[in-house]
UniProtKB/TrEMBL annotation, chain A:
This is AP-3 complex subunit mu isoform X4. One of its GO terms (biological process) is intracellular protein transport. It is found in: Endomembrane system. Residues 104-340 form the MHD domain. The lineage of its organism: Eukaryota, Viridiplantae, Streptophyta, Embryophyta, Tracheophyta. The gene is LOC111277395.
From TrEMBL, chain B:
It comes from the Eukaryota. Residues 823-833 have a biased composition (Polar residues). Residues 727-741, 749-760 have a biased composition (Low complexity). Subunit of non-clathrin- and clathrin-associated adaptor protein complex 3 (AP-3) that plays a role in protein sorting in the late-Golgi/trans-Golgi network (TGN) and/or endosomes. The AP complexes mediate both the recruitment of clathrin to membranes and the recognition of sorting signals within the cytosolic tails of transmembrane cargo molecules. AP-3 appears to be involved in the sorting of a subset of transmembrane proteins targeted to lysosomes and lysosome-related organelles. This is AP-3 complex subunit beta. Belongs to the adaptor complexes large subunit family. Its main location: membrane. GO terms for biological process: intracellular protein transport; vesicle-mediated transport. SUPFAM superfamilies: ARM repeat. Residues 811-965 form the AP-3 complex subunit beta C-terminal domain. Coiled coil: none annotated. GO terms for cellular component: AP-3 adaptor complex; clathrin-coated vesicle membrane; Golgi apparatus. It is found in: Cytoplasmic vesicle, Clathrin-coated vesicle membrane; Golgi apparatus.
Length: 341, 1136
């Protein structure tokens, strides 16, 4: 078995388990050991993946939910194993449960983007790219056939698709044509490279002499994306040669963890001032000057904006059911956003 | 501060977690056995059964063995509730192998379930039934799988496909063809889900039967995008193999780039606008990588081990595929369709699928199309650290073979500080191999940042990478060298203050990089050398100093300035010599003598003085390496130092020679060392072997191009072509590896053979020995014999005896020689013997030796082994190779009517280990001596063929890792592998240790207390003997002697012991055997610790005797096990 296949499968198992159990840790697994056993038995057979499609699994083995829990307490009887084979196992769209019925037909499309950026010691943006996902949450009756098109597909550098996406229409017209799975799923992931700017700036300054190092980090909004930027955090690992650190900020809280990781949570940037972190680091006794420099890792979140500039043009259904609701959202957050000092 | 508040908070949080746990099975996990499970299992309510099963599952999860519930659980297979069924199946699969007999009880239910209208029930029944893995039910499973392969439900058919590898794992040869037939049926299925599973089955059941693929090739290609992702991964690999085997390599692909001239390169250049800028450098890289690519492609097809082992380099290059083995991607439809169907998979969500599809394109696609795999590969880089590493390992090979592919995407390999060190190192390596003129400046900017990274190991790697970049792109030399020099100046500032080895590592790496840069063009870097020399005073790291000093010596005559400053430098070095570390001292001596050799004119005198001073210092150094070097150099330079004067004419010639030698050693003609040997190992992209860089178990290189002939496809049944396929791949596949090493096995085995014949003949020359003794001794290695004789004669207090006698004495058949001995021949050490001799004076029981028959065990039943019967018995001889080895005589008998060929026994684990470690080299005997290297099984001489009815035997030398657990071996015959188990007998883990009774008593007295173990048992063998004796009353034996004879016989035929003495009771009552005592001695093979056994008899001669057996041994566990074994065989009644 190729190693990547093994890794990918393990990731899939982890995804399924955390979806079932609402998290993945030792306690949760212990508490639901029967379901874990049943799931694993269904997911792998003799060392080869058997059923990994979450929709089918969910039909075969019911996930624990409040109703079933209460029911099991009341009646003392709980069976989470389905009696019948999910119809989807046989169909040519194995990701879709057979014939769900909804009173309200809804489909939500979310663009979730992560920004990877590297800013080097000179403050130059070396690399800035967006890794995005199109997440769809669909509750549609019957066997819907959807078509999603982008206003500007040419900015996409590369794409990866959920198995439900048909390759031909994408190759010829860059249209996403698909029969969606029921519920939430990741329709596609994409990459947009060579972006020119970041929404915030981080300017670290470290000057050291005589065994002390002055730290001064400034954070501010650079190109206003039009929406509020929140959950701004800054993290960096203090170099091993530092004995002690005394850091304060004019906004937000600063914590130095035991493993020498310093984290500064800013939250939102206030209107009146630019948040800054200042302080001194005491170097090892014989060290005059700092010769290794930490890298600052930045986190942030912007609701309502896809920074890549990707825009969804329209979403069409072949057979429009009555009462259809379509929703679009966007979100950008920091991925590997690093500022070197 | 508020303890009560804290407590509330805690209980609150506890309560909240309790809420979450309500309705889960948590309580079952916490106390699985707080109620008794058995009655619940027998309950008539499904919910109670369910609860009981969940409790059992919890116990299994916690590591308890609950197999004792097996019968009760199996009963519940018949339950109608699916949940109960599922839980029972989980339990069953866990314990079926342990309780095979009870597991059989469930078979009827499975059979019934297979006919159930619910497809889920059918599928589960099939999965569990196949998963039980019992040989007995294999035929039933085969029938069931055959039935399910035609099931209307897709899911059931898929499970049928998944069941095939399970069946195949049982290795029952008679089913192979029917399994393959089912694979064929399932591959032809119209449902993509089934095809995917069938592909997986194909890959594990019959990967060589490519004709199965050939029949459906088109269909499989077309269905590929719809197959589920896991099946896709396997199917892509199979299709690639098929196309290579059927059509050979594609002419336009990079795999064949050596044949195509650079014309295609320039074509590509002009067609590609992006690359226009880098045309020049790419042409350079294009030419240098063709050799590399050629190597890669050869490795893919032959497997690197075979390829690299081919003797001469020229041979490698000249060996080429002939033109017929190529096909054209443009005209061949099969190639075209495969590429066409795999290209959309490059967009797959599953990174393993992307990599598999990319590897098809890498091998098959025309050169100009290969670049389409790059973006997907770079895209899957953004994932977990583990998969990132795997992808980078593969990209590294691609990038080295075709740097131009990745050159424009250098930014993707920039390093994030959050990545692990391994990933950083890989990225650096890729970056330095894809730099081109247009990207070098930004890459260098990055490198400068990396050097200041807190991870100093990574910083050192970065410095090394800079050196490599410069070697690729000489244009950048000056900028880089300046940067590196600045770094050195900066580093040494901080360096003094002991910021550890890592800082030193950066410095050393920087100087190393400069050194390799200078090597390329020394004259233009004169100033650099001078700068380095100037910084000598401040650089304190020994390795760095040594390197700079080396450069002084090496380039001492370069340019104008260096020779002028040499005197100063040398004086400085001489001045600080005493305070230097070892490597620097050695380097100073070398440099001084190099300088001396090249010196002329007025400097010579100074150099001589400095040199003599240095040598004098060094001769008094504490380190002998330095002293030796000083003596050596003094001798070598003696002509330079002294003989310039005319008076020294006596031994002028050797001095001249010395001068030549010195010139040669320190001379400045630098031999062209190949920059880097390109003996890398390449494995197929995406494979595990490519990550670990050795052939992982199960790795298969691509099949030989065009090895699959078109006629094969028309053969209706697969069987004929399987043979062919297997033969084709014989050289490289799994079997092949073992056959490769079998040469060595044969060699070493034949060495034993010759040894045997030598000793055998010497045994024969002794002539007067009985047939038995010559047989017994002829396999003993002469070496051991001699040393043991030495020991023996020491034990005998130096009494000189003929060697024949000694050999007999030391052999485990000592009883015979001893009983046979004439009263006249003296054996003064053993006083007890005379007693026996008195009472047994006239009775000869010399045939005991011949009657000592080691027990024979069955290794392979003719029913399982196609008529080959293999038995084995432990032999009393001692291995000549290592004392850890136990000798076993193995008897092969062909009970079938056909000739069996190529029989050999191999150790399963070591075979695998050898396979994976690529160390199939000759196992030389010297290496066997050390403990760790002793193999589990000394390779056996292969039996080329065995005619029907013929019997042959081989001596096997085995190292058991445990004295109770069986050893798994693999028996190969007719090219098939049969797993067999060799059960150890602790009685043969010892060898006889001859000693006389005083020594015995003495040793025994030291091994009291916890080293002494006793057990008693009854013994009945002698009764029969006595009855027999009384029957033919002509010769009435002494009863005591009869008992003692049968006891000794029993002991000696079950263990490798030496009889030390027999104590006779003072005969008050002729029928009372109480007081009879036998003493045996031996030593443990592995540790050579002596082990003493004493058997004391109680009871009447004609009745069953009570024996008390006492073992004295330092090794407690061994002693106890040996004692148990002795008791066991003494009790068991064996008819002779």
């Amino acid at each position: 078995m190729p190693p990547l296949m093994g890794i990918e499968f393990l990731c899939r198992v982890a995804d399924v388990l955390s979806e079932y159990l609402g998290g993945l840790n030792e306690d949760v697994i212990k508490d639901n050991f029967v379901i874990v056993y049943e799931l694993l038995d269904e997911m792998i057979d003799n060392g080869f993946p058997l059923t990994t499609e979450p929709n089918i699994l969910r039909e075969m083995i019911a996930p624990p939910n409040i109703v079933s829990k209460v029911l099991s307490v009341v009646t003392g009887n709980s069976s989470n194993v389905s009696d019948t084979l999910p119809g989807a196992t046989g169909s040519c769209v194995p990701w879709r449960a057979a014939d769900p019925k909804y009173a309200n037909n809804e489909v939500y499309v979310d663009l979730v983007e992560e920004m990877d950026a590297v800013i080097n010691r000179d403050g130059v943006l070396v690399k800035c790219e967006i890794y995005g996902e199109v997440q769809v949450n669909s509750h549609l009756s019957g066997l819907p056939d959807l078509t999603l098109s982008f206003a500007n597909p040419s900015i996409l550098d590369d794409v990866r698709f959920h198995p439900c996406v048909r390759f031909r229409p994408w190759e010829s017209h860059q249209l996403l044509s698909f029969v969606p799975p029921d519920g939430e799923f990741k329709l596609m992931s994409y990459r947009v490279k060579k972006l020119k700017s970041t929404p915030i700036y981080v300017k670290p300054q470290l000057t050291s002499d005589a065994g002390k190092c002055r730290v001064n980090v400034l954070v501010g909004i650079k190109n206003d994306p039009g929406k509020t930027i929140d959950s701004i955090t800054l993290q960096f690992q203090l170099p091993p040669c530092i004995l002690s650190a005394d850091l304060t900020s004019n906004h937000g809280t600063v914590n130095i963890l035991s493993n020498k990781i310093c984290s500064w949570s800013i939250g939102r940037i206030p209107k009146d001032k630019a948040p800054s972190l200042t302080g001194t680091l005491v170097l090892e006794t014989e060290l005059e000057r700092l010769h290794v420099f930490p890298t600052f890792r930045v986190g942030f979140r912007i609701m309502g904006v896809a920074l890549s500039g990707l825009q969804i043009d329209k979403l069409d259904l072949k057979t429009v059911p009555n009462r259809l609701y379509k929703g679009f959202r966007a979100l950008t957050r920091a991925g590997e956003f690093e500022v070197r000092s | 501060m508020f303890p009560q508040f804290g407590a509330t908070a805690e209980s609150l949080s506890k309560a909240s977690t309790m809420v979450f746990r309500i309705g889960t099975d948590a309580h079952l996990y916490d106390d699985p056995d707080d109620v008794s499970i058995a009655p619940l299992l027998d309950s008539k309510f499904d919910s109670e059964k369910c609860e009981a099963l969940k409790r059992l599952l919890a116990l299994i999860a916690q590591g308890f063995d609950v197999s004792n519930f097996f019968p009760q659980v199996v009963k519940n297979v018949a339950s109608q509730s699916l949940e109960v069924k599922k839980l029972v199946y989980l339990y069953l699969l866990h314990y079926a192998e342990k309780r095979p007999n009870e597991a059989l009880l469930s078979i009827n239910c499975f059979q019934k379930d297979l006919g159930d209208p619910n497809p889920l029930v059918r599928a589960w029944a099939l999965r569990t039934m196949a998963g039980i893995r019992l040989h007995v039910i294999a035929p039933l499973v085969l029938v069931a799988v055959g039935k399910c392969a035609r099931d209307p439900s897709v899911y059931v058919r898929k499970c049928a496909a998944n069941a095939l590898p399970k069946l195949h794992d049982l290795r029952q040869e008679e089913h192979t063809s029917s399994i393959e037939e089912i694979v064929g049926i399932l591959l032809n299925d119209h449902s993509p889900a089934v095809v995917g599973a069938a592909a997986a089955a194909f890959a594990s059941v019959c990967p060589y039967n490519l004709s199965l693929i050939g029949r459906n090739y088109r269909k499989l290609c077309e269905i590929l995008p719809d197959v589920e992702e896991w099946g896709q991964i396997v199917l892509i690999g199979i299709l690639l193999r098929y196309v290579i085997a059927r059509h050979g390599l594609v002419k336009e692909s990079i795999m064949c780039s050596l044949q195509c001239t650079d014309s295609s390169h320039s074509e590509k250049n002009s067609s590609d606008v992006d690359f226009g800028l880098v045309k020049e450098s790419r042409d350079m890289s294009g030419t240098c990588d063709s050799e590399f690519v050629n190597m890669v492609s050869r490795c893919y097809i032959e497997g690197p081990d075979e390829y690299l082992s081919r003797s001469s380099y020229a041979n490698r290059v000249s060996f080429e595929l002939n033109g017929a083995q190529f096909t054209s991607g443009k005209s061949n439809d099969d190639v075209k369709i495969l590429l066409c169907c795999t290209s959309p998979l490059l967009w797959s969500n599953n990174s393993a699928v992307v990599l598999a599809a990319a590897s098809v394109h890498w091998v098959m696609a025309p050169k100009e199309d290969v670049k389409r795999i790059i973006k997907p590969l770079l895209f899957i880089l953004r994932s977990s650290n583990a998969s990132k590493y795997v992808v980078l390992c593969n990209i590294q090979v691609f990038a080295k073979a075709m740097p131009s592919l990745f050159a424009p995407y250098y930014e993707d390999f920039f390093i994030y500080s959050s990545e692990s060190y391994q990933i950083k190192a890989l990225k650096l390596e890729i970056l330095s191999s894809i730099t081109i003129d247009s990207s070098i400046s930004s890459i260098f900017k990055e490198f400068q940042d990396y050097i200041r990274d807190p991870d100093r190991r990574f910083a050192a790697d970065t410095v090394a990478a800079i050196g490599q970049c410069v070697q690729r792109l000489p244009k950048m030399t000056h900028i880089c060298v300046d940067g590196l020099l600045a770094l050195i100046r900066k580093e040494f500032l901080t360096n003094d203050f002991g910021s550890g080895d890592q800082e030193a590592g950066v410095l050393v790496q920087a100087i190393m990089s400069i050194k390799s840069i200078i090597k390329q063009d020394p004259p233009s870097h004169e100033k650099v050398i001078i700068q380095l020399v100037r910084s000598l005073d401040s650089i304190k790291v020994p390795a760095a100093r040594a390197m700079i000093i080396w450069m002084v010596g090496e380039y001492s005559s370069l340019g104008v300035i260096i020779p002028r400053m040499l005197t100063t430098v040398l004086k400085y070095l001489a001045w600080c010599f005493t305070s230097e570390s070892l490597e620097t001292k050695l380097q100073i001596l070398n440099t001084a003598s190099k300088v001396l050799l090249g010196a002329t004119g007025e400097d010579l005198w100074t150099f001589k003085k400095v040199f003599s001073y240095l040598v004098e210092l060094a001769e008094c150094d504490l380190n002998y390496d330095v002293r030796d070097r000083a003596h050596f150099l003094k001798k070598l330079q003696s002509c330079n130092l002294v003989s310039r004067g005319p008076e020294e004419g006596t031994n002028g010639l050797p001095e001249k020679d010395l001068h030549v030698v010195a010139e040669y050693i320190f001379g400045r003609q630098r031999r062209d060392v190949k920059a880097e040997s390109i003996n890398y190992r390449f494995y197929l992209p995406g494979s595990l072997s490519q990550i670990v860089l050795h052939a992982a178990p199960g790795y298969e290189p691509l099949p030989k191009p065009c090895s699959l002939l078109p006629d094969d496809l028309n053969v209706p049944e697969g069987t004929c072509s399987i043979k062919k396929g297997a033969a084709d791949y014989g050289g490289t596949d799994g079997y092949g590896t073992s056959s490769g090493s079998s040469d060595d096995e044969e060699e070493s085995a034949s060495a034993y053979g010759s040894q045997r014949s030598i000793t055998g003949s010497s045994g024969g020359s002794r002539g007067d020995d009985s047939e038995f003794t010559s047989e017994g001794n002829d396999n003993v290695d002469p070496l051991i014999q001699i040393s043991d004789i030495g020991n023996a004669s020491e034990n005998e207090n130096g009494v000189s005896q003929s060697s024949t006698n000694l050999v007999e004495l030391m052999s485990n058949r000592a009883l015979e020689s001893w009983l046979d001995e004439q009263p006249g021949s003296s054996n003064p050490g053993i006083s007890e013997q005379s007693k026996v001799r008195k009472s047994s004076a006239r009775i000869s029981i010399g045939d005991v030796g011949r009657r000592v028959k080691p027990k024979s065990y069955s290794l392979l039943d003719p029913a399982n082994g196609n008529g080959l019967k293999v038995d084995y018995s432990f032999s009393s001889e001692i291995s000549s190779i290592s004392h850890l080895l136990v000798c076993i005589e193995v008897f092969f008998k062909n009970c079938s009517s056909e000739t069996v060929t190529e029989i050999t026994l191999v150790d399963e684990e070591s075979n695998r280990a050898l396979d994976s470690a690529d160390q199939a080299s000759v196992v030389d005997e010297s290496s066997l001596l050390s403990y760790d290297n002793v193999p589990t099984l000394v390779p056996m001489e292969e039996i080329a063929s065995l005619e029907p009815g013929q019997t042959t035997s081989r001596i096997l030398q085995v190292r058991f890792h445990h004295h109770l657990l069986p050893l798994k071996l693999a028996l190969f015959c007719d090219g098939k592998k049969l797993p067999v188990k060799l059960r150890p007998d602790i009685g043969y883990f010892v060898k006889p240790l001859p000693m006389d009774v005083e020594v015995f008593m003495d040793k025994e007295s030291h091994l009291r207390g916890m080293f002494e173990y006793t057990r008693s048992c009854t013994f009945t063998d002698h009764i029969e003997e006595l009855n027999k004796e009384s029957g033919d009353s002509l010769l009435i034996k002494d009863k005591f002697l009869a008992i003692c004879e049968s006891l000794a016989l029993k002991m000696l035929s079950n263990a490798n012991l030496c009889l030390v003495s027999v104590d006779m009771p003072v005969a008050t009552n002729l029928d009372d055997a109480s007081g009879l005592r036998l003493r045996f001695s031996c030593e443990i093979l592995s540790s050579l610790i002596p082990c003493l056994i004493t058997i004391t008899v109680e009871g009447k001669c004609s009745d069953p005797l009570n024996l008390s057996i006492k073992v004295n041994c330092e090794q407690t566990v061994f002693g106890l096990n040996l004692l148990n074994r002795i008791v066991n065989f003494l009790v068991e009644c064996v008819l002779f």
